[in-house]
């Protein structure tokens, strides 16, 4: 089993809501939460015309298993580590909320 994380994003591209997901690894809870935010910041800086405003992010642990004899992959998503949107976070900025969650989950 490979232990990874899955981050799901919703963002505006012009006036259209789009979504994307990434799979990645992290050694700590802090890195699991901060890595997709860093990914978003870098992507936004590189292609600002496509990734203008993040609306939502969800981060979950994710396990990927080997392909079995029948050709199926055993994978599963764990309980959500963090979920953020401006309305759900009651106006709290993403990075501030991420730091709060890192502190909360690292106890």
Features:
five-stranded antiparallel beta sheet, 107 residues, 5 strands, 28% helix, single chain, 2 helices, alpha+beta, globular
Can you describe this structure?
The chain has 107 residues and is an alpha+beta fold. It has one domain. It has two helices and five strands; from the N terminus they run ββαβββα. Strands 1, 2, 3, 4 and 5 form a five-stranded antiparallel sheet that branches. Strand 3 and strand 4 form a beta hairpin. The longest helix has 18 residues. It starts with a strand and ends with a helix.
- Decide which structural class fits the backbone: alpha+beta
Molecular shape? globular
H and E string: EEHEEEH
Task: Determine Rg (CA atoms, Å).
Answer: 15 Å
Unreliable stretches: none
Number of helical stretches of at least 4 residues: 2
The total of beta strands comes to: 5
Number of structural units classed as domains: 1
Task: Describe the largest sheet.
Answer: 5 strands, antiparallel
> Taking all residues together, what is the mean pLDDT?
89
* Distance between the ends: 26 Å
Strand content: 35-45%
- How much helix, percentage-wise, in residues? 25-40%
Described by its quaternary structure, the protein is: single chain
């Amino acid at each position: 089993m490979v232990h990874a994380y899955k981050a799901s994003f919703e963002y505006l591209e012009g006036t259209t809501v789009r979504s994307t997901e990434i799979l990645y690894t992290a050694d700590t809870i802090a890195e699991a939460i901060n890595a997709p935010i860093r990914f978003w910041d870098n992507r936004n800086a590189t292609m600002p015309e496509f990734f203008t405003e993040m609306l939502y992010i969800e981060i979950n642990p994710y396990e990927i298993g080997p392909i079995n004899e029948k050709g199926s992959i055993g994978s599963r998503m764990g309980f959500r580590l963090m979920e953020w949107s401006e309305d759900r976070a009651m106006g709290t900025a993403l990075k501030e909320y991420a730091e709060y969650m890192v502190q909360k989950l690292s106890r």
